[in-house]
Amino acid sequence: MFDLINGLPVHPLVVHAVVVLLPLACLGTIALAVRPAWRERYGLLVVACAALSTALIPVATSSGEALETRVGDPGVHAQLGDQLIWFAVPLLVLSAAMVWLDRRASTSPGATGGRSPVGVVRAVSVLALVAALAASVQVYRVGDSGAHAVWGDQVGAGK
Q1: Distance CA 84, CA 127 (A)
Q2: pLDDT grade for 88, boundaries at 50, 70 and 90
Q3: Domain of 14?
């Protein structure tokens, strides 16, 4: 299903969307965690980037498996790529929770009636920050291993 579009492999096309959107979601989550005032204005955009990149990861892994049958085993890249979803889902859930809790806290009437405690919002923000950093590292690892799998022999031979 996720093999070719117009004779070109789907994998590099989808991967580039993930490689752009997931780091943007990570950077946005970090920014929202450190600057709570930005949550109302940019929160939905960050969550949308996280959601879209998370939705595209299974497409990238499936298309990578289809590409593997054509070009061979990419080694550790496939294993790291399969793990990426487990970094993206917590990022999505925690960034969405951070934005939602912040909006709930700012729109609730009264000092305590139905309001999210500040400590809960802070705790979720810290967890979102950690998830963003972890997802950033994993995106780098997947991309680096993929670049080595594709270009390692060709570039290394020119030395």
Answers
A1: 18
A2: very high
A3: 4-157
**pLDDT, tens digit (0-9, with 9 covering 90-100), for 99-138:** 999 988 877 655 455 556 788 999 999 999 999 999 999 9
Side-chain half-sphere of 154: how many Cα atoms within 13 Å?
5
Euclidean distance between CA atoms 20 and 23, whole angstroms: 6
Return all residues near 130 (Cβ < 8 A) that are at least 6 apart: none
**Total domain count for the chain?**
1
Quick check: pTM over 0.85? yes
Burial of 5-22, coded b for 16+ CB within 10 Å and e otherwise, reads eeeebbbeebbeebbebb
Percent helix, strand and coil across the chain, each to the nearest 5: 85, 5, 15
